[in-house]
Each structure stands twice: as structure tokens, then as C-alpha cells.
Design a protein that fits this description.
The complex is a heterodimer of chains A (about 280) and B (about 270). Chain A is mostly helical. Chain A has 11 helices and no strands. In chain A, helix 6 packs antiparallel against helix 9. The termini of chain A are far apart. With about 270 residues, chain B is of the alpha/beta class. Chain B is built from 10 helices and 10 strands. In chain B, the strands form 2 sheets. A 6-stranded mixed beta sheet of chain B has the order 6-7-8-3-9-10, sandwiched between helices. In chain B, helix 6 packs parallel to helix 7. The N and C termini of chain B lie far apart (about 40 Å). Classes of the chains: A mainly alpha (about 280), B alpha/beta (about 270). At the A-B interface, helix 7 and helix 8 of A face helix 2 and helix 6 of B. Bound molecules: adenosine-5'-triphosphate (ATP) and magnesium ion. The site of adenosine-5'-triphosphate (ATP) has 11 residues of chain B, from helix 1.
């Protein structure tokens, strides 16, 4: 073993370490930048009117996003109503029933759907809901976000159910408990935190979606009076404001992006809180 | 007098059943996993209110036999069974018989203790009753105490019935699982190496408990521990490669076996 060989190896080792570290930092940098920028621009643009007032007409300064904030919550509520039950039940089927061949097909479909560009979902719901209803609506917006949640929730549900030891299932069945009761009261109950976590993360994932809402929820400068009317949503309004030529709208777009980020962050913190003692128990 | 103890002399008439009759009869029982035949035409009588031990080398089909006795093997999709099993004369595989009903009458305790982690001690005991529709609070409370007493756990947990079940020690958890199985009032209790994961003290607790339980229940226990089989069982069945090689009163199987293979196995001279 020669000295130069030794140096060369040390160099290679150091080089690899630096390279991997740089790539890892590359992941963190945008988050830090976005965060800093949003905090700087968005937080300073926030005021009471932002939360309480409707958007002003084109060119006027002032006003807020009250309708879009409410709209986002309404859309997310509907999305959860569609996405969580279907996703959870589908996940239960994959984990507890089904045959390996059928499950393979379903898993493949779900994973493919997770990678489908979100605008495609918008087109599908446009055809399925908007056209028959003769116009965009809050309902269509909720459905499209809910449909996007289904494959996400389904796969996470399946994964956390698979973590429940088979011993619990056998113990329950050996007591003469019916299979569906065993699933609901023992298996799902044991994995409940994980299921809720998966649902919340899926919700956070669709909360900022803009493209699928473009021709479903469509946006609304005022309040929507029913789910059949188009509804405002924060991502849509941010998009419209950001591409406008007005400084005040730019300011509000920053503020909107900041609030949206806080919403997603709050969901993620909630998830951390739920899962904090996940590994403490269990044998 | 509960059945025959390993120390009493054997009479020929005791060969197939205890003094309380027969709880389970297996006739020509074969079990297949896909193409692989795991049990080969096993015929065996399980005496009522006695302890029957199943012994044999690893992989010989002891667990498979046990699981066929309460239809648990049906959970394995590729498993297939032939033959006939009767519980006090009733065919448990008859078309109109539901597996859940069989499993309520033939309970099971597993090697790895598995109390439900989301439930308290008391909830674990009554789970079989509650999920089968029993709502009455007083009955549930009564059954909790009764089952925990039978499992010799009452004194240790009576002040913390609402504590999480997983806060118990390993041996206590296993007795909790026995209490949980007893609460649904089965007639037969199947135990698959119930003490193999426990320390000697906890093991002797379980053994004493089994001797106590056989007054009211018919017990089948799988064990790899020859001393344990000799100490607690009235009858012993020796399985080898899916076949029942020898079956009889425990002290005969241990002291004076008919087959060479049995002798080699119980004396530890087995390859
Ligand atoms: N689910 C299954 N699918 C396929 N083969 C199985 C399955 N369960 C058991 N077997 C096979 O059946 C045979 C008997 O297994 P079994 O678990 O009954 O043995 P055992 O006597 O209980 O062994 P041990 O003492 O190790 O617990 C083994 O060859 C095993 O590989
Ligand atoms: Mg076994």
C-alpha cells in the first residue's frame, strides 16, 4: 500500500462526502428560501382586512381574501368527505381482503393515479361533473380534490394496516369474533393514528392544488351561496393575483401564499403531534 | 377424580379417553398446504377435562393439527383439510356450522402473548364477549373477575383493571391472554407453546394454572419441553413428519413407549 494510494482514497472519500452533502443541502435550500421570502413578503402584507374582507375590484387597493380562505376550507371539507372514506375502505380491502392478483392491479392503478398530472384530474371532473351540471361549482372542486386524495389515502392506509401484527388478527378470530368486527375494532383501531396521519397528509397535499380547480371550482370574487355555485379558493386567487400587473395584488398574493403555507404547516405539525408516541409502545 | 395423573398406574381402558369422556375426536385428519401434505391421516381422541400434550420435532405439524381443531387453518388460503373432527360428537366441519361458533367453543392461546394494545386489562378480558354482542355491564364485570381469577391473575391486576394491557409483564400478558380466551367460556382450550417465551417462574405459574383449569376445560397443549409435558399432561401424542407415531397416557409414552422413535425423542436422543 503506497502513500499516494492512501491520499487518493482519502480524497475520493472526502469528495463523495462533499458531493452527497451538497445534494442534501440542495433539498433544504429552496425550503429555506421560500420560507424566508414568504415570511418576509407575506407576513408583512398580512392585515386584518385580509381575513375579513372580499377582494376589491380591479385596480382598487385594499380588500382581502375572506371568501377564498373560507372557500379553501369548504373545498377541503368536501374533499375529506369524498377521499377519506373511500380511501380508507379501499386500503382496508387491499390489506385485509382481496386476492394477490387483484390487489396488484389495484395497487398499480393507485400508484399510477398518484403520478397523474393534477390538471388531468381537473379535466376528468370537468367531464364528469361540470358538464352535466352546466357549469363549475364548489361541489366539482371538492370532488376533484377528494378524488386526488383517494389513491394517497388508500396506499397509506394499506401500509399502516400491514404493520399491525397478524397475531392480533388471529387472537381476535380465535375468540370467535366475526372478521369484519375484528377488522374494525382491532386492526383499524390499532392503526388508527397512522390512518389519520395518512388522511391529514393527503389533505395537506391537495390543499395547495391550483390546476385541478381552474375549471371545476373556477373561483368567485364574492361569496358562493351554495355548493352549486363557483367558489373562491386561495390557490386560485393567489394565481390570479400573482400574474396581474398590480402591486397591491402582488402583496396580497404573498399574504395568501403565506397563509396557505401556514395551513399546510399546521396540518404537518398536527401529524407530528399525533405520531409522537408511535414507537414508544409496541413489543 | 380428574383423569389420570402421570403417576397413577395405567389401565388398558384408559387408553383412548379420560374418565370424563371424549371432547374432540379427529379421524383420518389430513391437512395440505397447496401440494404439500403436512398432516397424514391422523386419528386422535382428546379427553374431556384432561390435558393432552402434543410433542414432536419442529415442523412435524403440531401447530397445524391444533389449528385444524378450531378451523383456524382456514385463514391460510392454500390450506385444505380432509377427514373428520367432532366436538362432543358434533361435526365441526359440517356445512351449516360456522367457524366463529366453533372458535367460541374451542379457544386458543398462542406462543407469543398478544393482548390488544389499544385496550385496557379489563377490556382485553371482555373483548370476546363485547364484540359478540354482550352489553350487560354487571355480567361483563362478573366475567372479568371470574376469568382473571381462573387465569390466576386477579390479585396482581385487580387494582389496575383500567391500565393498558401492554403495561403488564410478559408472563402476566400471557395469563391475560388465557383469561381473555376463558371469558367466552370455551369447552376446549388449545395452547400452542404458551410458555416457551417465558422465564421459569412465569412458566411454572402457567403450568399450575393449566392443572387448575383442567377441572373445567379440556386442554390440548403443544410443547417442546419434555419435562413440562410429563408434569402437566395426562395424555401425550407424539407426531413425526405429519404422522401420529404414538399416543397414550403420558407416563406410558414417557416410561414405556411402544415405538423406537418415541423413545429416542422423549429421551433426547433424536437427531
Ligand atoms: N401457512 C403455511 N403455508 C405453507 N406451509 C405451511 C404453513 N404453515 C405451516 N406450513 C408447513 O407445515 C409444516 C408443519 O408446520 P407446523 O407449524 O404445524 O409445525 P410445528 O410442528 O408446529 O413446528 P414448530 O414446533 O416449529 O412450531 C411445516 O413443514 C411448515 O413449513
Ligand atoms: Mg408450531
Amino acid at each position: 500500500m503506497t502513500v499516494s494510494n492512501h491520499h487518493w482514497r482519502r480524497f475520493k472519500n472526502g469528495f463523495m462526502q462533499t458531493l452527497t452533502c451538497a445534494c442534501a443541502m440542495l433539498v433544504v435550500t429552496p425550503l429555506v428560501l421560500v420560507f424566508y421570502h414568504l415570511l418576509h413578503e407575506g407576513f408583512t402584507s398580512l392585515n386584518w382586512a385580509f381575513f375579513t374582507q372580499l377582494p376589491k375590484a380591479v385596480g382598487e387597493t385594499g380588500g382581502g381574501m375572506a371568501n377564498a380562505i373560507a372557500g379553501t376550507f369548504i373545498l377541503l371539507g368536501q374533499a375529506a368527505l369524498v377521499g377519506v372514506p373511500v380511501g380508507v375502505l379501499g386500503g382496508v380491502f387491499l390489506s385485509e381482503y382481496g386476492s394477490s392478483r387483484l390487489n396488484w392491479a389495484i395497487r398499480f392503478a393507485a400508484d399510477t393515479l398518484n403520478g397523474v398530472p393534477s390538471i388531468t384530474w381537473g379535466i376528468v371532473v370537468y367531464a364528469l361533473v361540470v358538464v352535466p351540471m352546466h357549469g363549475p361549482s364548489a361541489l366539482a372542486g371538492g370532488i376533484v380534490l377528494g378524488m386526488m386524495m383517494i389513491p394517497l389515502v388508500m396506499r397509506t392506509t394499506e401500509e399502516v394496516l400491514q404493520l399491525v401484527p397478524t397475531g392480533y388478527r388471529e387472537a381476535a378470530l380465535a375468540l370467535g369474533i366475526a372478521k369484519w368486527k375484528m377488522i374494525v375494532r382491532i386492526v383499524v383501531r390499532t392503526a388508527l393514528k397512522g390512518i389519520v396521519t395518512g388522511a391529514l397528509l393527503a389533505l395537506a397535499r391537495v390543499a395547495g392544488e391550483t390546476a385541478p380547480l381552474l375549471f371545476t371550482a373556477f373561483g368567485n370574487l364574492g361569496w358562493a351561496h351554495s355548493l352549486k355555485e363557483p367558489i373562491a379558493a386561495m390557490p386560485l386567487l393567489i394565481f390570479n393575483y400573482a400574474i396581474s400587473p398590480y402591486d397591491d395584488w402582488h402583496r396580497q398574493a404573498w399574504a395568501g401564499a403565506f397563509v396557505l403555507l401556514m395551513l399546510v404547516l399546521a396540518i404537518n405539525v398536527g401529524v407530528r403531534f399525533l405520531t409522537r408516541d408511535r414507537y414508544r409502545r409496541n413489543s | 377424580m380428574p383423569a389420570i395423573s402421570p403417576l397413577t398406574p395405567i389401565r388398558a381402558s384408559d387408553h383412548t379417553a379420560g374418565t370424563h369422556g371424549t371432547a374432540l375426536t379427529a379421524r383420518n385428519l389430513s391437512v395440505f398446504f397447496g401440494q404439500h401434505q403436512v398432516l397424514k391421516r391422523v386419528s386422535l381422541d382428546i379427553a374431556a377435562r384432561a390435558v393432552t400434550a402434543i410433542i414432536g420435532p419442529s415442523g412435524c405439524g403440531k401447530s397445524t393439527f391444533l389449528r385444524a381443531l378450531n378451523r383456524m387453518h382456514e385463514l391460510t388460503p392454500e390450506a385444505r383439510m380432509e377427514g373428520d373432527i367432532r366436538l362432543f360428537g358434533e361435526d365441526i366441519y359440517a356445512r351449516h356450522v360456522e367457524p366463529v361458533v366453533v372458535r367460541r367453543r374451542v379457544g386458543m392461546v398462542f406462543q407469543k402473548s398478544n393482548p390488544f394494545p389499544t385496550m385496557s386489562i379489563a377490556e382485553n378480558v371482555t373483548v370476546g364477549l363485547r364484540l359478540n354482542g354482550l352489553r350487560d355491564k354487571t355480567t361483563l364485570t362478573e366475567r372479568t373477575e371470574q376469568s382473571l381469577r381462573m387465569a390466576a391473575l386477579w390479585d396482581e391486576v385487580k387494582d389496575r383493571l383500567h391500565a393498558p394491557a401492554i403495561s403488564l409483564s410478559g408472563g402476566q400478558q400471557q395469563r391475560l391472554c388465557i383469561a381473555r380466551a376463558l371469558a367466552v367460556q370455551p369447552e376446549v382450550l388449545l395452547m400452542d407453546e404458551p410458555a416457551s417465551a417465558l422465564d421459569p417462574l412465569a412458566t411454572s405459574h402457567i403450568e399450575e394454572l393449566i392443572l387448575e383449569l383442567k377441572r373445567n376445560f379440556s386442554i390440548v397443549i403443544v410443547t417442546h419441553n419434555m419435562q413440562q409435558a410429563a408434569r402437566i399432561s395426562d395424555f401425550t401424542a407424539f407426531f413425526y413428519l405429519g404422522e401420529l407415531v404414538e399416543f397414550g397416557p403420558t407416563n406410558k409414552v414417557f416410561m414405556n413407549p411402544e415405538k423406537r422413535q418415541t423413545e429416542d425423542y422423549v429421551t433426547g436422543r433424536f437427531g
